[in-house]
Each structure stands twice: as structure tokens, then as C-alpha cells.
Amino acid sequence: MDRLGYQVSRRRISRIMKENCLVSNYTLAQYKIHTNSCNESNIPNIVDRDFDNRDKLEVAVSDLTYVRVGIKWNYVCTIVDLSDREIIGYSAGANKDSNLIEKAILSYRYSLNDIRVFHSDRGKEYDNKAIDEVLETFNIERSLSRKGNPYDNAVSEATNKILKIEFIYQNKFVTLEELELQLAEYIYWYNYIRIHGSLGYVTPIEYRNEAVPERAA
């Protein structure tokens, strides 16, 4: 059922797509870059794959992905609130480094004082004194995935997969400024307009607003 109240079967959707020569973006295989660098910090995985039923801003998860800008690779960092899957922070840059992550953290739409846990994988970019100082200043607890285990950061990885399929692979970016402008527009659409199956087919903002009265009761 869509948001207008129509009930449609998968078979009917498949027929309509075939008649109009439409192909889902999610069926297209894409190339992925891998890295061997690892953060060896002695920080436990306190999130422990417990991604659901979290309070607002209780846990923020982060990951990086790549994007072609001109003839070079650039990178995007996203930060997601587990409570409603809203992208609450993001950044884009030419380098895959801690500055990109710090910029994303400082772009939070909410007060940093409200974040309780910041979780990421063990990418070397997340092992940095500047990032640690920001988190310590706002009393944000750190959590890291176990080494070589992508499932420990599954929500963030899934969010970036959607970002690549729906946004990155569908556009060509000549400059970083162009990427940043279009990324801001996509993030707004993702949070305020795009419905999410994991949220009962409402947007992150709608889910957040609906959840507030229930938690306050």
C-alpha cells in the first residue's frame, strides 16, 4: 500500500515497470573500494548490534563512503541517529581523514550534549585526538565495532548503501562544491520526504514526531 491508500501487488508493480522499461537501481552491481587500515584502540563495542528501540540521540552511528568528483575520489561521512534513522550529521571532502569526520560531528542538527554514544567501525580515520577531544568535551561515550566485522555497524553501512544507490550513482559531480550542495538537498529529502520501510513507511522526521508523545507519556 502506498501513501495515497492504493494497494498494489509486487506482480502488478513488476508488470508496470516492464511495460515502461523501468529497472530498479538496487539491481545494479557497483564497485566498492576496500581498505586495510584499522583502528587498534582498546575501545569496546558497547552498542553490540542493539540497533532498535533506542531513545532519541542515545546512539549515533557513523561510516564513510566514496564518490567520484571529476576524475578523483572524494568522500562522504554520515552520522545516523539509531532512534529514527535520521541523518543528523554529514560532510563531504577530498580526503578520507579525521577532518572529514570532525566536520560531520560538528554539523549535528541537535546539541552535542544530547548525544550519549558515538559508534563507528575501526577505520583508521576514526582514531584521532581531535575527534576524541570533541567527544570528551561533550561527554559522549565511544563505541567501536569488532575488528573485521561489518555487521557491528550495519545501520550506518545500510544508510550509506542507500546514499550511493539513490544519490551518488545517479549523479555526476564536477566539483566538491557541487557535491556538497546536492548532498545537502538529498539529506533533506532523505529525512523529511523519503519513507522508510524499517520505520513503518514514514519519514524519519515523522517517526520522531510521532514517538515524542509516546515516550513522554
Structure write-up:
With 217 residues, the protein is an alpha/beta fold. The chain has one domain: Nucleotidyltransferase, domain 5. It has helices at residues 10-19, 98-105, 129-137, 154-168, 176-192, 204-216; strands spanning 59-69, 72-81, 86-93, 117-120, 141-144. Strands 3-2-1-4-5 form a five-stranded mixed sheet, sandwiched between helices. Helix 3 links the parallel strand 4 and strand 5 (141-144). The longest helix is centred in the last third of the chain and has 17 residues, at 176-192. Residues 27-34 have low confidence and may be disordered.
Record the SSE blueprint.
Layout: H1 10-19, E1 59-69, E2 72-81, E3 86-93, H2 98-105, E4 117-120, H3 129-137, E5 141-144, H4 154-168, H5 176-192, H6 204-216
Parallel strand pairs: 1-4, 4-5
Antiparallel strand pairs: 1-2, 2-3
Question: In terms of per-residue confidence, which ranges show pLDDT below 50 for 5 or more consecutive residues?
Answer: 27-34
Assign a percent range to the helix content.
Answer: 25-40%
Rg value? 18 Å
Order of helices and strands: HEEEHEHEHHH
**Beta fraction:** 15-25%
Number of helices: 6
| CATH level 1 name | Alpha Beta
Quick overview:
With about 220 residues, the protein is of the alpha/beta class.
Short descriptors:
single chain, 217 residues, Nucleotidyltransferase, domain 5, alpha/beta, globular
